[in-house]
Amino acid sequence: MTYAHDTPDNETTEAEDGILSKPAVAMIAAGAIGFAVGAVIWQYRRSHPQKFASFDRAVDMARSGAVDTVQTLRKRLREEGYSPAQIEGRAKKYLAQLIDAAQSRF
User: Fold this and answer.
1) pTM
2) Spatial separation of the C-alpha atoms in residues 70 and 94, rounded to whole Å
3) Burial of 102 (0-12, 13-18, 19+ CB in 10 A)
4) Which residue range(s) make up the domain with 74?
5) Which tens digits make up the pLDDT trace of 66-101?
6) Phi, psi of 102 (to 5 degrees)
7) Is 4 domain-assigned?
């Protein structure tokens, strides 16, 4: 009867034969996982474009001078199908500054 600690020196144990002993396999596995995660993120963004684009659209409207207040901007975002939920706190102050700067140009 042989025990696990009685293995000859030329045989490898399961722990020594793991993925860490094969750097090429580890790199390929990490790359595959990264690719899969990237594909999921890309698919999510493609299927939910307004969620990521609403603030960008708000900034465009504020810079263009198309709106005169943040309240008007939020209303226009809703009308265009965007979510104004991101227009709170610092973002709201930033957009108000952009609107004021655009209004002073005209």
Assistant:
1) 0.51
2) 10
3) middle
4) 49-105
5) 999 999 999 999 998 888 888 889 999 999 999 999
6) -65, -40
7) no
